[in-house]
Design a protein that fits this description.
Helix content is 24%, strand content 28%. By secondary structure, it is an alpha+beta fold. It has 2 domains: 160 residues, no CATH class; 61 residues, no CATH class. The strands form 3 sheets. A 7-stranded mixed beta sheet has the order 3-4-11-10-9-8-12. The chain has a 3-stranded antiparallel beta sheet with strand order 5-7-6. Helix 5 packs antiparallel against helix 6. It is globular and about 60 Å long.
């Protein structure tokens, strides 16, 4: 889901009551990574926007909701969710303090953090999912936020990652990837392939794969890597590359 940087949500109106959504209007936040040893502090200026999934829910199977409960944007129509709406009031502070929170990698290109919030006198887990991108500057898009309950039992495999690492990698086109640090990354292996072409025999169409890799988005690197490995097994003569890849 692409971020709508300039999206401002209109109030939800029902039975002459207006539910203000201005707390989810786009905002600009400057995150500061403190100086460390001989490294100076780094400032990251980020444009933040919020999805309507932060205060609405999808239709349940065979559900016919009251039309007065529907909320729409240019893409979709969903059901206004009062619980999500109330909890969404916590989102600006949660996002403001991401640098001081535990963040986790979903393994699917986005991230999430968990907040313990009070709901009807008890603490519940409030999962906040977001993605970072670079569009004329750093952009953070809060994709959805909801309470972990019976309808949302499954949670992505949680691998911790510091928020400052997410911002740095996004700014410098370095993938925030789940990986075993003892194994070579897909990117480094493919760079080995592209920078040592004299030791390879490959059909002409591989040139297009190399070009696509060099211009690919972060989320597509592994796809092109796998394409090369699958399509070239009979053409590869660089045994060291195969030995490295075989250990993954």
């Amino acid at each position: 889901m692409a971020a709508c940087i300039d999206m401002k949500w209109l109030p939800f109106l029902r039975h002459n009551i207006s539910y203000d959504l201005s707390h989810l209007h786009p905002k600009h936040i400057t995150y500061v990574q403190p100086s460390k040893a001989d490294k100076p502090a780094i400032q990251y200026k980020v444009s933040v926007s919020f999805s309507m999934h932060c205060f609405t829910r999808g239709l349940k199977e065979k559900e016919r909701p009251d039309r007065t409960m529907l909320y729409s944007d240019a893409r979709e129509t969903r059901v206004f969710d009062f619980q999500r709406y109330e909890l969404s009031k916590e989102l600006p502070e949660i996002i403001q303090n991401l640098a001081n929170r535990k963040c986790y990698h979903t393994g699917k290109g986005n991230f999430f953090t968990v907040e313990l919030v009070g709901d009807l006198g008890q603490k519940v887990e409030y999962d906040v999912f977001f993605e970072a991108s670079r569009i004329k500057g750093l952009v953070l898009f809060v994709q959805r936020a909801y309470v972990r309950d019976a309808q949302h039992r499954s949670r992505p495999r949680a691998k911790p990652i510091r928020f400052e690492v997410i911002l740095y990698n996004t700014l410098h086109d370095s993938p925030s990837r789940l990986r075993n640090s003892k194994r070579p990354s897909c990117e480094s292996l493919l760079k080995n392939l592209t920078t040592n072409r004299n030791s390879w025999v490959y059909p002409p169409w591989v040139e297009a794969i190399f070009w696509r890799y060099q211009h690919a988005t972060l989320k597509s690197h592994s796809v092109y890597m796998l394409t090369v490995v699958i399509l070239l097994p009979g053409e590869i003569r660089n045994k060291s590359f195969l030995e490295q890849w075989g250990k993954r």
